[in-house]
Design a protein that fits this description.
By secondary structure, the chain is mainly β. The chain is built from three helices and 31 strands. The radius of gyration is 19 Å and the shape is globular.
Amino acid sequence: MPNCSYMIGKHPLTGWETMTLHCEGELATTATFTPQVGCNLLSFDVAGREYLVALDQTSTQPSVLGTPVLYPTPNRVRDGMMTFGERTFTFPPNNGGNFIHGLVRDRRWCCDEPQICANGIAVTTRISMAPGDDLHTLFPIANTLELTYTLRPGEIELRFVVRNDDATQPLPFGLAIHPYFAIIGARKSVQIRVPASRWMEADQLLPTGRLLPLDAAPADLTHPTSLEGLDLDDVYWGMRPEQPAEIHYHAIGRRLTLHADALFTHAVVYTPHGKPFLCIENQSCSTDAHNLYARGLHEAAHLTILQPGEAVEAAIRLCVSDL
């Protein structure tokens, strides 16, 4: 059993409250997250190598990156408005005329005491939307999102539980992470593999609902593909647990694998030129999922709907290994 510990502190650049988990061993591994700002995983260091970019300092206005949790609306909502059944939900636009990245990524989460567990250390955090708070005003369905971080040598697991706490209303939601992975070495030496089944046609970064063959996509990522010349902000559909996404870091001989449970059927791939990061975002649904679902495009949307009292659990693991 590895020697594990934790420390409470502050982020050196932002002053945010942080919790750092650490596991000794051949692959000594450290992870730091901030309950103060969305329970964001800011650092994932394996054997002295950092795999996340915490802040974007390439622009005039530095912004938080890390690993935002996107809920209950991953990515964009067209015009900041969505419908479900006979209800309409309106969110303040924060991305042109659209609303982006959900309601919980910049909020304070509650955090339990870490616990030593089999082969690692775990800590459970949560955020609730309940009558009387401003999140419930925006999304008036009582619910709780719980996230347990479990750190082991060479890997970190993010295990989510979503509970519908509402007495009468169903809970339609999507869930995702938005990790900003470091580009290690020359851009051309980094390869990604995202073995999806289809590409989602989009208009101004909003899916039309059409699921197209990969030969229609800007890139077929079913085989390792270099970042050289790759400039994507696209949604891929048909991810499966037995075929996880991967990042190959040839400069250091390492592979980072994103193992995701069956709930996470979609992946957004974001590889902007001129930035020191790339994103592979495991999502339980499409971008703009509620509106696609309202149009009857249930397969493309893959919206999760919990009845009162129901809950669902699913996990994503980031694992580092040799190539």
